[in-house]
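Appendix B. Extra example for self-study. Work through it before the problem class; the solution is given directly after the inputs so you can check yourself.
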Amino acid sequence: MPHVLHKKDFWAGVLYIVFGAAAFWIGREYPMGTAGRMGAGYFPTILSVILMLIGLLSAARAFAQEGEAVGAIAWKPLAFVVGSTALFGLLLPSAGLVVALLVLILVSAAASQHFRFDPNAAAGLILLVAFCTLVFVKALGVPMPLVGSWFGE
Amino acid sequence: MNMTGKVKSSLTRRLMLFSLSSVSALLMLGAGEGYAQGKAPQGPIEITSGTSPGGTPDVLMRRVAKILNEEKIITNPIVVQNRTGGSWMVAANWVLNKKGDENTVLTIAQPILTTPITTGQPTVYDKLTPISMFIQGDLLIAVQPNSPAKTFKEFVDLAKQRERSIKVAGAQAGSTDHMVTGLVEKASGAKLNYVPFDGGGAAATAFLGGNVDMIVLPPSEALPHVKNNKIKLLAILSESRRTEPEFKDVPTAKEQGFDIVWGQSWGLAGPPGMDPELVKFWDNAIQKLAATDAWKATVKEMFLRSQVVNASQAKEHMAQLHDQHLALLRDLGLAK
Amino acid sequence: METLSNLWLGLETALTFWNLAYCMVGVLLGTAIGVLPGLGPTATIAMLLPVTFGLPPVSALIMLAGIYYGAQYGGSTTAILVNLPGESSSVVTALDGYQMARQGKAGRALATAAIGSFFAGTVATVLLAVFAPPLADLALQFGPAEYFSLMVLGLVASVVLAHGSLLHAFGMIILGLILGLIGTDVNSGTTRYTFGFPEIADGINFVVVAMGVFGLGEIIGNLANESTRTVMAKTVTGLMPTKDDMKQMAAPVLRGTVLGSMLGILPGGGAMLASFAAYTLEKKVSKHPERFGKGAIEGVAGPESANNAGAQTSFIPMLTLGIPSNPVMALMIGAMIMQGIQPGPSVMTEQPVLFWGLIVSMWIGNLFLLVLNLPLIGLWVRMISVPYHFLYPAILVFCAIGVFSLNNATFDVYLMAIFGFLGYIFRKLDCEPAPMLLGFILGPMMEEHLRRAMLISKGDATVFLSRPISATMLLLALILLATVLAPAVRQKREEAFQEEA
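Solution. Structure tokens for the complete assembly:
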């Protein structure tokens, strides 16, 4: 097997092919129609084929052209930032805004290597939660429970 | 002629059920229930709306909330909350999941009936607790001001000359505009070219730009264009003409020999298993609302009608509406 | 003469104490909320709409308009400071504005945006006052065929947004187009790629994608390099543009104003193309296109002017025809109906006080915006000098709440997390997200207009060439494509020659 010289191009190509193939596979159920009366599947099919071709081109180019390596994936920030956001969504209706915000802030902050206990940061945390409560819930009326269903009404 | 006869026999009969005369008949049966102050919700009330702020049902419900509070019919603060997405299904699911909740009611609009039909999902309306249907809107058939057709009949004859030669602009497939186009096709035997747009505003733009020949509009939206001589109104799709000077000369489709009666309607429903006492509370509030001058002014200003179908009839009324929509969407090949 | 007396009437209306106050409150509120990441003009207006219900109609609309351009400007501030475009038009502002901020030139970028916006706003207001009705008629010349060709031109232009590989620019555009297809197909009612979730049956909100790939993706990327490089330059150079900067931005501001004013009039998504078009134009006319994406001041001045000019002229179809040209205008129409005014051509003749008062107030609002924001620049700059590990959790909080408030649904928060993951992967693979976002915005419109045009022409594809406006735009797209591809092809050939030699 020839050597992959441009790792980034290769994986980007794989990504395009995966997305294109998925779009094509799901989209095959949608009716194609004709050029005059296009169906729901006309545009998606064309686009997914083009995306797969671009993916092939990108992956093929990776064997001919030298390029950078992808580099290590920053698993910790990735997991903490994405995870804390999802946790916020999960906790908002059940535990309420205050708890959800605390979890979001603390978990995401833990992704940084500078994360440690600091009285200033703690004060900032309280201020931020208070600000969100006042501005979004009280003033703007965004329907978020301050205290969620876990803690009763 | 054969076609017209066939249509008359099946579909339009059922559609006539929607007509305002039968609504008022229902109203007579249920009116005049007086009762003592029963159970009332505690704390703020949410009216869930499936459109973004500014959409017709949203505007209507905000007016309803304002009048209910201002006239002290309901003293709890009422908030209209927009939960958009999925052609009202996000709003509907929100309320469906609030079984027995006392502080949430759902705005009922036609998508609550039609979205499950066109997407093949289980029906929604029959799982809710009906409260009241109390706002109705008329629809008008409008064409370009330079159209050679002077009456609806002439327009239909024109459309029949060449299949799909008349282009109709409207909102997305399965919308009210689309259904009305289907009704016109069925009642006249003409074949129209329906061009769906992303919402009524975009359709109106295309119409004003002369890109299409026909459009379906509610009176309030048609009025500015009528004044500016940008459209010609051929028919109103209600049982009777409107009485305002702006619209009294627009004949009904029925008068012109086409049995097409269709309109929009809005109301309220509670979550599944709503306490009958609370239904009574709301029912009572809506009837009081309908009697206020502020509400009458709103209805007049927005060129709507307000016939209250109260809680005892609302269930049956919604079922009828559902069946009409189902039948029509099936005929249009849009039911899944 | 008539225009003058109308403007006088407008001045009389807009300069009353209360209307001035409402205009200022609107601009202030709009800026304050629009500057929070994740809250663009649409969300801000939707939230603040109920506040205006109690006011008289003229004051309510003046305040709403103030909220609108305040939020628009606030959104640009966030785009520049923390790379978070709260709406489609500030995506391109983020490209060079954020780079300027990282180089310690945040103040200069913000001032450029403020000055450019003010100039563009002034010109567009005059246009609105003098030419509103004929311009509206012009806008109606755009049918589905013209819009499709405009979208094609827009997509080709978006290739220019990328400063890396062309192939990846195309790939990301197509990926964006496919993501844009998610939701209900307007033409047939079929739901596509929704996996049965009703929450995305109307499509994914732009803000969710932007906050995910830009916001979360950026944060993860910065954290990954935390030990090797600082996010923000330590030294801040100048809060105000230098004389040199002013000279550099003059022409882009003018070009942006013209482009934005023209595109803003088109009701079918013209305004959102304005800033993209301006960026493309600047990069194409620049002698040093390689500076773009690395902190070019023209890349802020042009799009910001275009954006603000477009925001003003997008009132034209709303006020003269009653047609909403974007979600914000749809909200404005809702507000008018709420106030008992039926928007449409009659507003101008039947409600002259409202019409002219609103127009004059727009200029006053723009002035407020300038006066308010120039002094604030120092504060913003100090804010981003807060250590990044304190700043990013706060950004994340605003993103999460902002995205939640779009539909009041946690579903969008989860989606944002997914797009954050994708955003990081794209960064790792050097796939730029800006072209993807443009594809995402244009995709659904392009498909709809194409299918509509074909329905109207009954399957005759020559409509795109037989209608002059459409044909012109396709020709422009072709020329642009050629100029984009030519350097790449030449480079390839040179490389080939070198290898042979």
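Self-check: Chain A touches chain C through 71 residues (CB under 8 Å). If your reasoning did not lead you there, revisit section 3.
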